[in-house]
Amino acid sequence: MSFSINRTGGVRPGLSAVVLVLSVALTGCGGGTDSAGGARSSAVGTAAPAATSGTTQARPSRPSADTGTSGSADSARLPGLGPRTLAAIPAKARQVVLVTGRGRNSPISEVALYRRTDTGWAPGAEWPAHNALRGWTDDHHAGDLRSPIGVFALTDAGGLLADPGSKLPYDRSGGFTTVGTGFEGEPLAGSFDYVVAINYNREPGTSPLDWTRPLGAGRGGGIWLHVDHGGPTHGCVSLAQRHMKELLLTLDPAQHPVVVMGDATSLTR
């Protein structure tokens, strides 16, 4: 499959939207293996073995070596996070999407928004969510049906629907069409109406549809925040459509937003 980058950085299907739709449906949340090129940076956090120089993968079990850490006084106000998880949050991050899984093997989670103020982290909206069918892992691989644990930047968005007013770069494309049914027989149509790419094994500054995998295809990819279809995901985190729209209106690249995600026990490290 071939792709082209549009003038605003979005990816347009080169052969057929139908081919891309089938690829997305078969590989989960946009998790393909082809490379389309893009920016030259990666996920926020601790370096992990990578296929491309400069690529990093955040993990709560180890502090960030190159991004700086949050001050202990205000980061302590992020509930349920242990010292190693807190240390992985970059000092420049002023918006946090905290995804707390109900259990290591559970597909149920809760999302809470926080913004950094002069006096600490101020809580915002809280929403129910789904994560991967088999829960969570700090060593994610393609097809394991677990969501990756870690701290990851949020830099790019897109969807099948028109941009609702996102401050993040937004790629509207028919490539976000998806079909079929989920693990519980629920229809998947509309799942990618709104999407925020999670910078796990992807190139920031590109459309969520970009299939570049700096850590290699075997480490998975296409991990998104997207519209909930009423059941577990392949690896993504899903929210009700109205909540995804609110998230898109809230996230501001000038505030360097990150997602902190994992099961509750792992996040206490």
From TrEMBL:
Low complexity bias (residue ranges): 36-58
Alphabetical list of InterPro entries matching this protein: LD_TPept_cat_dom (IPR005490)
Residues covered by region (Disordered): 32-82
One Pfam family this sequence matches: YkuD
Domain L,D-TPase catalytic positions: 188-260
Biased composition (Polar residues): 64-73
Protein name: L,D-transpeptidase family protein
Species this protein is from: Streptomyces kaempferi
Lineage of the species this protein comes from: Bacteria, Bacillati, Actinomycetota, Actinomycetes, Kitasatosporales
